[in-house]
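A favour, since you know our structure tokens better than I do. What I am after is a single protein written out in full by you. Could you add the entry underneath, on a fresh line?


***
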Amino acid sequence: MSYKDKKVITIGVVSELTGLSERKIRYYEERKLLFPERSKGGTRKYSFLDVERLVDIANKMEDGMQTFEIRKMEQKALRKQEVRERMLRGQLNAAFNIRK
């Protein structure tokens, strides 16, 4: 796991890094665009990748996109990535004659 994946940043720090209000960050979570972890005490914890994602989301919103459009785009990109990974695994299995 990369340091960028680790969920260690609090919402206050994320707000400072992105310029987004804590309320806006929570809104993006409600709209299923972001999935922070929670500490035992219930504190939201974000990763550096989450921070980058928030900036991207904010830019798209500024360009006039709606949250459901952003979510659809991200789901489509994820499906494409999954297909690519399956194809690559298949090619590697075929190249090395690996049978399941």
